[in-house]
């Protein structure tokens, strides 16, 4: 008698190995998950990443601020030395002396933490750039710290000239009673303004790397740039002296011309 070869039996025999293979699937070694492409985050993901990077930047201020508070006396004496008078700075409130020390400590923390802050900024925006734009912009990121330090140095250099000019308006009828809060507010604003404005050439070079501007376009709009430099210099420099905005205007124009040269040498 011939064996009973039914279609259902044949299907069962053919499906058996596949069933066994399916049964072994849970015990197979799982491959690594596919890496998510850069720039493929949702708005919520970008906000979460921004929050995390801002948190890291904020915590990076703590070591430098502690160091600045421990040496606040020496730092205050160093910043006060450019004044053209030996009179002590006045503190009008009971807590003013403490607040000045905290302010000096915080500014010290910002300056010392600037490498971390710049890195977090770069790490946040770099995934949105193309590989060629990222490789072109990466060498300029460390230079941002050097330009910031240069700006702070320029601000300290012009500080005695700015304060000396303002003290020339003192007379026998008008005596300047310089408070610590007003003076260190002036110094803080001056330092941050010059430090941040020194990033101007880096911004221009990066804009040229991504194809937004060219050296030819900058040369064509030189007059408008000069007007903008003068206006910005007068708006962001503290006090009513003409020394600070004049120096900042000259420095900014020099950086503008240097940026044109660097962009042209880069082929743009």
Output the keywords.
268 residues, mainly alpha, 13 helices
List the helices and strands and how they pair.
Layout: H1 7-24, H2 43-59, H3 61-70, H4 72-80, H5 96-112, H6 114-125, H7 131-137, H8 140-167, H9 180-197, H10 200-209, H11 215-220, H12 222-236, H13 243-265
Helix pairs in contact: 2-6, 3-5, 4-5, 5-9, 6-8, 8-9, 10-13, 12-13
Q: By helix and strand content, what is the structural category?
A: mainly alpha
Mean pLDDT: 76
Could you estimate the helical fraction of the residues in percent?
over 70%
Question: What is the strand tally?
Answer: 0
Termini gap: 90 Å
Would you write up a description of this structure?
The chain is mainly α and 268 residues long. The protein has one domain (40-265). 71% of the residues lie in helices and 0% in strands. It contains 13 helices and no strands. It has helices at 7-24, 43-59, 61-70, 72-80, 96-112, 114-125, 131-137, 140-167, 180-197, 200-209, 215-220, 222-236, 243-265.
């Amino acid at each position: 008698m011939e064996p009973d070869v039914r279609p259902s039996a044949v299907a069962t025999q053919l499906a058996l190995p596949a069933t066994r293979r399916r049964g072994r699937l849970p015990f197979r070694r799982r491959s690594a998950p596919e890496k998510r492409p850069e720039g493929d985050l949702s708005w919520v993901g970008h906000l979460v990443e921004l929050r995390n990077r801002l948190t890291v930047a904020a915590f990076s201020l703590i070591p430098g601020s502690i160091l600045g508070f421990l040496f606040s006396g020496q730092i205050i004496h160093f910043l006060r030395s450019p004044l053209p008078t030996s009179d002590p700075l006045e503190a009008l409130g009971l807590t003013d002396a403490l607040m000045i020390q905290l302010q000096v400590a915080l500014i010290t923390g910002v300056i010392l933490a600037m490498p971390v802050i710049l890195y977090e900024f770069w790490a946040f925006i770099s995934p949105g750039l193309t590989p060629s734009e990222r490789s072109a912009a990466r060498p300029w990121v460390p230079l941002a710290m050097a330009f910031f330090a240069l700006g702070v140095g320029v601000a300290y250099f012009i500080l005695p000239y700015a304060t000396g000019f303002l003290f020339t308006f003192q007379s026998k009828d008008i005596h300047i009673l310089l408070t610590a809060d007003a003076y260190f507010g002036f110094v803080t604003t001056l330092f941050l303004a010059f430090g941040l404005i020194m990033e101007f050439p880096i911004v221009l070079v990066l804009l040229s790397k991504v194809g937004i501007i060219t050296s030819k376009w900058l040369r064509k709009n030189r007059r408008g740039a000069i007007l903008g430099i003068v206006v910005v210099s007068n708006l962001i420099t503290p006090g009513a002296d003409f020394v600070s905005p004049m120096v900042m205007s000259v420095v900014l124009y020099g950086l503008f011309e240097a940026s044109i040269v660097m962009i042209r040498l880069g082929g743009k």
